Amino acid sequence: MRKVLMVAEKPSLASSISAILSNGQASSRKGRNGACHVHEWNGSFRGEPVRFRMTSVCGHVMSLDFIGKYNSWERVDPAELFSATTEKKEATPKLRMPEFLASEAVGCDYLVLWLDCDKEGENICFEVLAAVQSSMSRPPPDRQTIFRARFSAITDRDIRAAMSSLVEPDENAARSVDARQELDLRVGCAFTRFQTRLFQGKYGDLDSTLISYGPCQTPTLGFCVERHDQIQSFQPEQYWKLALTCDVDGGQQIDFEWARVRCFDKEVASMFLNQIKDIKSTVVDSVVSKEKAKARPQALNTVELMRVASSGLNMSPHYAMQIAERLYTQGYISYPRTETTQYPENFDLLGAVRQQRDSAVWGEQVRALLEAGLRQPRRGVDAGDHPPITPMRLASRHTLDDDSWRIYDYVVRHFIATVHRDCSYLSTTVTVRLGGQQFTATGARLLDAGFTELMDWLAVGRAEPLPQLAPADLLNVSALALTDHYTSPPGYLTEAELITLMEKHGIGTDASIPVHINNIGLRNYVTVEAGRRLVPTTLGNTLVHGYQKIDPDLVLPTMRSAVEQQLNLIALGKADFHSVLTHTLNIFKQKFHFFVKNISYMDQLFEDSFSPLASSGKPLSRCGRCRRYMRLVESRPQRLHCQQCGHTLALPADGLVRVYNESKCPLDEFELVVWSGGKKGRSFVLCPYCYNHPPFPDMGKGSGCNSCSHPSCRHGVSQTGVSACSCCERGVLTLDPSSAPRWKLVCNRCDVVVSAFDQASLVAVMPDVCEQCGAYLVRVEYRPEKSRLPNKAAQLTGCAFCTAGLTQLVQLKHAQRSGGRPRGGQRGRGRGGGPDQPRRDKMAELAAFFM
DNA sequence: GCAAGGTC
């Protein structure tokens, strides 16, 4: 029997599509990468009996990056990135997706691609194809074996229709995505590296580890700064209003609005007032009542959920989507990433509503609605991706955590509202005249709350209604005055407004919009203030104003859609991949060179707002070249700057850096410092120079002295290494000499920390090894009054893991030692080597490094 | 350490 391999874009779709096509008869197993599932069943394909095997990827299989040698920010000129060689790398290495796909493809004769029907999906088709092709059975000549299923909804009818009219994957659409990837990579990385390096090398208080540029994130920031500029340049204007209050013969008071609304000229306003100020009563001119309706919402899609989460629930879009995804995997709501606001034709609305009828919170309203009958939902847009977001099963408040409940609560209320009645109310407008001036008052009376029963924050007519009035009814003027006001600036942009702007300009997608908004916060370009309003920081403002001075295109929201338009030509087959790509790349390359050439315009703005590195920070440790103190620049990213020599040295990103008893690195004379941080209280000694420029090939960049194989330095691994780390492959557990008196053994590769010999006055690693386990012995000394050794001994030399009297002083709770000898793979890693690898070998290796 | 786009 022939085999048909079918691949969807995500595990959930593989499962629902196979359920439809197998009539629920498929058997399922977990894929060997742990993330995907494989469903199998027998059926027929193009007139022959076959075995179907359906699985999925998890989004993109591959992603584009530069080849390794371009990873160096120091050695590579960012301009080179416009032509640097790129390669496709596995998008998520831990999923081992190509290998998984290849293994499932073995012995398969046909391939049917069920990727999402958009350009990204088309691109993933070819990623899947590349992964499986060599594993599949050899195709017979003249027979088509690769197919693409085109579907617009995950419904029985649509999926079966797609299956019976398979087409071929669309290479043009896929190529347009390849072009987009290459363009975003080259442009984003070139600008990001250039401006990060330049400004971080000059200013000490930028407070951002990265000064990124991106074709989506930068226009996103641009919207926020644009609003900031409007607020800054706003000039308030004074204006005046006529405020009239009447009462119905000593009864209810009614406030009227002036039909002219407002007047910006005080003299004119006063003239109006003078004309009518002596009038003591008036009569109702007209009473107009009109039935009005507030329409029930359309079915819920992702951007609307994010908007509501931000403006109504005070949750960031990013966080709200994390919650929604969890609710989805737990089966409470449907797939939360969709642009569609139209329920599929055969969607079981009634069934979904019935699920909610026993809810303790809204059950009563749901039962009443079921009694009265559901309304037809409003027509929405079917984007052909996924159905709108709906509840999938009933949850109660105590089965979910607070934030999950708030999102679920909203999804349910919104869903019920879409099949509820519109809200209707009677709007009444009363008009009166005083001399030549007209005034109106409007009130509302609820007729049918409809869906607002569930979305009570949208309820109308709760304010006191107007009294019953008829034309010619007499009203007494109880107050008439000129009030003065000022026009006010707009508020800072809310997240909800920003989402709307991004959607309108095609900046990002439903899945990436929350990521871009999150990014501009992470980069310290904006902060989120009360009401989830986004206020640009000095850095954010300076960047955008700089782009506007040099090349406004770089921050214009129209730039993205212009590029997308070009890419669309590739997708439609109207333009050649290479010509569009080289043309567009050339434009950005020129823009890049123009930007570099004119960077002084942006730099002037930086100078106005930020302090030069030389005057930032406080003196910390001595430079090995000039022996003067280097300054610790504390704002992110923390680094050391030598004013004399002009160099800047990176330090670990987070955590505290302090000086360490004036020890110097024997290799470069830089004064050693101690870093401490992390959840487990890790710490290690580091040489600021070696941390940036490792002296030995086996010491990685960003390592402390405990990874340095210097043969005699007392901070190197050859003097501090105790044993192999039990948790990671090549790590060595080293004594941290800076940790006294709460001594610690710290792995020089992973974050294992072992507290040991607390309050000891001295701990030293000895040259001899334990005969039982191969670890180096330690000498532990205590002051007599503090001794924790047996018999209050002052000192004991032995193995930390084997010698009675020492082992109980080692807290192995984080790192359960596997016991026995250190694992293999220790060569060249200092003291983990064990007794059969004496230190002489180590010395020989080191000697080789120095040659 | 960079982008944006999928999704876990």
Describe the structure.
By secondary structure, this protein is an alpha+beta fold. It has 21 helices and 30 strands. The strands form 8 sheets. The protein has a 6-stranded mixed β-sheet. It is globular and about 110 Å long.
Structure in a nutshell:
The chain is of the alpha+beta class. The protein has 21 helices and 30 strands.
Poorly predicted residue ranges: 814-851
The tally of beta strands, per DSSP, is 30
How many angstroms does the end-to-end distance come to? 65 Å
Percentage of residues in helical conformation: 25-40%
Q: What is the tally of helical segments?
A: 21
Mean pLDDT: 90
List keywords for this structure.
single chain; about 850 residues; alpha+beta; 6-stranded mixed sheet; 21 helices; 30 strands; disordered C terminus; DNA-binding
